[in-house]
Amino acid sequence: xxxxxxYAIRTAPGYQRMAAVDERLPESRRMESIIERNCRKDGFDxxxxxFYTELRHHRTKQILQKRFPFLVGYAFVNLxxxxxxxxxxxxxxxxxxRGANYGPLEFPDVTIEALYFAEHERRQAFLYEQHCRxxxxxxxxxxxxxxxxxxxxxxxRKARVSMVDQAERAIDSLSPQIKERVxxxxxxxNSLTADAEVENLRQAV
Length: 205
Prior knowledge:
This protein has six helices and seven strands. It has helices spanning 34-41, 84-88, 109-152, 163-170, 176-192, 199-202; strands spanning 6-11, 45-47, 50-56, 63-69, 74-78, 93-96, 106-107. The strands form two sheets. Strands 1, 2, 5, 6 and 7 form a five-stranded antiparallel sheet that branches. The longest helix has 44 residues, at 109-152. The radius of gyration is 27 Å and the shape is elongated. Mean pLDDT is 84; it is low at 196-205.
């Protein structure tokens, strides 16, 4: 088995941005960069240390997930066969990072492993922050929908009767227009509290 031999390449400007979505690729490659896609297409093992973040679109206000490189302008490629010339022909590869002897600088596995670990830690932190944001948004939406029901339904709900249960009991006595609105709110609440992990929260709705 050939050992790993990692070298740093200089990438052309713009080639570290995310490539166009290709539904034929596995999930693990959906957010790869252009340089990663080009190298993998030609059979090269590439590693571009990166991190993820969420940005809000300035116009649509939609949350977008973006991926950025740790090392702007650089990536690492494993070349156990030392086929430098073949890699140089890949679109987006400018040159190799050179050492003191003017040849391509080889990086030890321990360096690459440390970068993998740093990327993994950053990724886990991002996923946790993303989960917290989604959970907060879900809770805010539930409170908003509860507020809408509170304005529609009659006063005097018993403490142990959830607002959804009260709405389901009172729905037949409502006008068709209000009934349709209440049914929509109930449907949205049920979808927000359907998971087993949050079933207890539904009891308070």
